[in-house]
Structures are given as C-alpha cells and as structure tokens.
Amino acid sequence: MTFMNAQNSPTCALIDLEALRHNCRIIKQAMLPSQRMLAVVKADAYGHGAIPVSYCLQAEGVQDFGVARVEEGVTLRKAGLEGEILVFGGAFRGQEKVLLENRLTPTIFDLEAAQRLNAAAAAAGETLAYHLKIDTGMSRIGFLLEDLPEALHALAELSHLRLEGVYSHFALADSPGHQVTSNQVERFRLALETLKTLGVTPGEIHLSNSAGILTAPLPDCTLVRPGISLYGSAPSAALADQLDLHPVMTFQTQVARLQDLPAGTGVSYGHQFVTSRPTRLASLPVGYADGFHRGLSNQVEVLIRGEKVPVVGTICMDWALADVTDLPEVAVGDKVTLLGCDGDHCIRSEEWATRLNTISYEIYCQVGARVPRCYPELE
Fold first, then answer.
1. What DSSP assignment string belongs to 220-289?
2. What is the CATH number assigned to the segment(s) 17-233?
C-alpha cells in the first residue's frame, strides 16, 4: 500500500489514527478486565493500512494481532512488528517454512495441515505453538465437537506442535438475542470441557468478534477479536448505538473539471441520467476501480464545500460526475468527500452498504489499492 501526502494525489483515503485510538479505548471499556485485545488487521486492516494501524494499536498496549493469511503476517514482521500474530487461515501447503521463519502462530483446523507443520517444525528443531479452531456453528472451518476427542489424540502425537490457544467464531452475534449464538456458546463450553477432560489446558481462549464483545461477553475467554469496530463501524444496525465509534477513513477526491450543459443532455455511459435543466457538472477523478462502486450511480451524494450534491450518470472506472448547479461557487481543485464528514454533513459507509445490499466491511476493503492511504498525523 502506498503512503503519501494527500497533496500528491487528487484521490486518497485519509486515515485518522486518533479516531483509531479512540475506538480502541472504547472497545477496551466494553471488554472484561481480565481480557486482552487481539486486533484483527487482516485485509490490510480492512483497507486502512495494516502496518500503521498495527503500530498505532501497539502503542495503545495491543500485543496480539490477527491476520487471515501467512503473507499478511510476513508483511507485518518485515515491518518490524513484534507480539503474537495469529494466522486465522492456517498455513497452506508450501508455506510452513516461511511461517516458522516469521514466528507466526498458525490456526490448525485439519490434521493434514497439522502433520505438515509438525514435520516443518521438526526439521527446524523447533516446537510450534498453534491455536485450535472449533466449528461451533459457522460451518466454515474447524473441528466439529463430536470429532474433537479423536483430533486431540492425533494432535498429541505430533511432538513438535504445542496447543497454545483454542477458539471459534460467531455466525449471528450481530443479531442480539439470537438462539444460534446461545447454542454456539454452549458448544464452545462443551469443547472446553472436552479439552479439560483430556488434560489439555490452553493458555488462550477466544470467541467474541466485534459483535460478540457486545452481545456475548464470556468470562471463559482471555482474548476478544475486534475488527470492524476498530475502524469505526458497528457490526450491524442493531448494535449501532452500543459504542461511541468514530469512523477512521475519509475517502476524498477533488473537482478536476467543470462544464455547463443544456437541458436534455445525456450524461456518461448509457445516458442513465439526462439533464432536465441547464446543468453544471463537476468531473471527479475517482471511479469504481478506486472503490467508488458503479452500483452507486445516481444513488448517492458527495460533499463539496460542506454541502451535499448528487452523483449523476454512470460511475466509470476512473471518473464520476456530480451535479453542482446549485453550488455556483464550486471551483476546480475543491475537495470532494465521498465518505466522511465536511461541515455539518457526513456520509457513512453504512449508507453505501444499504444502497449496495452489503456491509461496511466490504465498503472499506474495496477502496482500491491505487488509492493512497494518507496519514496526516505521520506527515
């Protein structure tokens, strides 16, 4: 990911590290005093930049981080990040050596992968700590409760592996009071009892994601795994008022060109918008390749000089158009806020998510790689 001053590019994602710190502190207040935070920084910290985000959180006392893939963990290690880095997706075939070399902690959810990791650790003369994944109802990865005794016996035979943690993942914690969540908690506790019966005592236990922190606080757990809440969005509308979260990302561009069109003029691909009056359009150098989704065409507004103006016509790969007829003072070079606040108005990722029938997670993650992430605090 490119780090650069916002002045070097008309389009950028401004990352507010103070908002990140605020969210971290707010989440800590919602955790039990005995619990630590494992900050989820996968997918380049949900598009916010994993390296500066991780260092910011480390300065707030966070020492445990979660990534999805080995290569994400390697990126953090190469940047000098210390502390434990848990790889949720485990190690795929051929990644065992690099995982060991970078002191990453794998998730184990199948025996074949465990055997590969054990062989690699034996060859390196090491004992590799891992976290065991239990499938309590997500039906994605992990050992089923009924298969756990057999799996634990098999894992105990792998002398170069050491079980350090055990965890599972909620499927519906963002729907408060849902029976599935209660069932998952019960199955997870049964799994812990199975471990205890077999003489296995994991040092780390974790289940709660951002939603689970609010809906299922579990005293059994030593860790919680906030993700989306760190970046300023609630995990669902039902939990929107539970925490005072501040959005961390502001997605903005500039007015590149102004043009006056007569009534009856078709605009952009397909002429999905036709002017109904003499119209002034602002051309914006941002498009769906940057994460300004084509599905938002004629559906959303942007902020210019603190006022909302409509996006008109089809959003292109590299360009979008805004109707600024009612803002005659707009000039080339003016800041345009796609996501974020300007003056008294704000545009939230949740608004885009509603229009696109998706979630805030996807909105942040799809802000394109060619959009520089800018950190004013670090400049």
1. T-SEE---GGGGT--SSGGGTTSS-----EEEEEE--EEEEE-TT-EESGGG-EE-SSSEEEEEES--GG
2. 3.20.20.10
The pLDDT of residue 85 is above 50 = yes
Q: Domain spanning 249-378 has what CATH number?
A: 2.40.37.10
Distances (CA, A) of 192 to 49, 108, 123, 132, 144: 35, 16, 31, 11, 13
Show me where the domains of the chain are located: 17-233, 249-378
Across the chain, mean pLDDT equals 95
- The DSSP element (H or E) to which 308 belongs, if any, is strand 307-310
217 pLDDT above the threshold of 80 = no
Q: Which of 78, 97, 196, 269 is catalytic?
A: 269
269 belongs to the catalytic site: yes
Query: Which of helix, strand or coil describes residue 182?
Result: helix
Q: What phi and psi, each to the nearest 5 degrees, are found at residue 367?
A: -65, 120
| Given the residues 28, 42, 364, 375, the one annotated as active site | 42
Known catalytic residue at 78: no
Q: How does DSSP classify residue 307?
A: E
pLDDT in the model for residue 216: 77
